[in-house]
Description:
This protein is an alpha/beta fold.
Amino acid sequence: xxxxxxxxxxxxxxxxEILRPVPDDAATASRMGRFLTAALGPGDxxxxxxxxxxxxxxxxxxxxxxxxVDVADLTTVLADAGMPGARxxxxxxxxxxxxxxxxxxxxxxxxxxxxxxxxxxxxxxxLRDRVARARAxxxxxxxxxxxxxxxxxxxxxxxxxxxxxTASLGAVWLSCPPEFGPRAVVDRLGQVEPTVxxxxxxxRYGDRPxxxxxxxAEIRAALPSxxxxxxxxxxxxDAAAPxxxxxxxxxxxxxxxxxxxxxxxxxxxxxxxxxxTTGLPKPIVHGHxxxxxxxxxxxxxxxxxxxxxxxxxxxxxxxxMWNYGVSALLVGATVVCVDGNPAWPDLDALWAMAxxxxxxxxxxxxxxxxxxxxxxxxxxxxxDLSALRMLGSTGSPLPAEGFxxxxxxxxxxxxxxxxxxxxxxxxxxVGAAPLLPVRAGEIPGPMLGVDVHAFDEDGRxxxxxxxxxxxxxxxxxxxxxxxxxxxxxxxxxxxxxxFPGVWTQGDWITVFDDGGCVITGRSDATLNRGGVRLGxxxxxxxxxxxxxxxxxxxxxxxxxxxxxxxxxAGTLVLLLVGGPDRxxxxxxxxxxxxxxxxxxxxxxxxxxxEALPRTLSGKKLETPVKRLLRGAAPEDVxxxxxxxxxxxxxxxxxWVRLRRM
Length: 661
């Protein structure tokens, strides 16, 4: 399919062809369409978005009314719009768990698919009962408002039960997946000092059992704040609790009332952690009110999730998409959890699950979708996915080829929802909407209530060319605080120092005049050659599409630019995984980069390694690798326990050593 030219320079993103126009019935068939009609009457997405950022008081009141969000003592929605320090819903009180467990929600609430045990399904009635029991158990352990409860747990129904029970008490939830080693767990939980730890004995990744009993003992010993530990026997159903610990069955042994502590808007609901690839992970505090408003809007309007839908987003409990997926309960849907290797026994496993579970929304990472595309899978043809309405993609930009593959295999009825946001706001800044068209290689537009702009180096708006992704008005789910940052200095330096009073995300974005946009990587990893800045995702789109006639190609790539201290072109270093005919692949990469991008983007050095470092959520570690190449010690650039492959740094360290010699 031809790419529609916009007259942009060769180094700028070009507009992709429209793969899914806005359906004629979108105004009546989607929740967003009905919301628009109720709020403004006939109109389009651009009018709805403009209203949402120009009049936040009216917009968020409309969201509260549309979803019947129970907010006691509501007077003003936004009392102070200054950033940081915006004041939302002063004096109001609410509860996240009360909305997730509404009495009107019926049918299946949670489905657990696991490689360690059989399928588990809980109805809403069963979920309410188990949350009430877990709540009573936590009370017996002395948990009250403000206490921290931590989970060292996989994405299973019990984790959702424990989280909702914690939230119902006004206590604060923390979680780390069992894939994390002790250092990564203690680096996170130790900052927030939990009083209760709920943990599994181990898990299973594909056909590989992973015992975590030794790691659990080490974690407990390193957390002096713990008053109690609860063991969930998961890998071994007969596993005994460690000394002076209790079991999950004991925690839920006694019934109790299902009550919900009503708390202030900014009362902590959970603490999320940044990736921790450079220094200690940032403990990001999110409040009940911000998550309630933001997740109702994003899941209910943008993802079009409805009561009775079946929502799935592959995630571990260490990624924001776990928290986001659980919030499908807020709108009465069924949350489908999958724990284990998403590609076991083969790449088709999740698509087969999507068919058997009749999923309506399927979310994953862009890298997983590209793996399926490169493997030649056609899940839309091979499985009955007629219930599917949305295909979600996040973690990294989805290339145009990924959009085209998805459109071809799933058809125009399925919205390809490439979205970008993050742990920082527990939501998205830009993404798809039922009232927006989908173009190849583009994110359709800014999300409602999010005032997205691209700024140049002087803080001026730029359209149609790359700039810093900034948010110029507050979102309800911006962090309440960073835990332990009493004077707010760390929060300000993280998001507000670059442009005072404006949120700077650290992403490189091009925003077009119709709102469509392209994320091209982290701004601190942007390539700058000869005065032309280019996002790394454009580079990867070309490099990782290279293949030879024998079928060999590039399995992974990572590019960094080492700037010249005296203002020269610097050194562009390309790290590759793949083969076996490496000279032929290098020659083809150089040819493609020179022809499709520009001569200035041909790498100065190419190195082949066995693996490249990624976080557990699949993000490439461009900035840490850049620091390695500049001479930093590996222990200073990344915590190995936070990497998908802890050994991935070793080959790069060795290459740096040989390069210096």
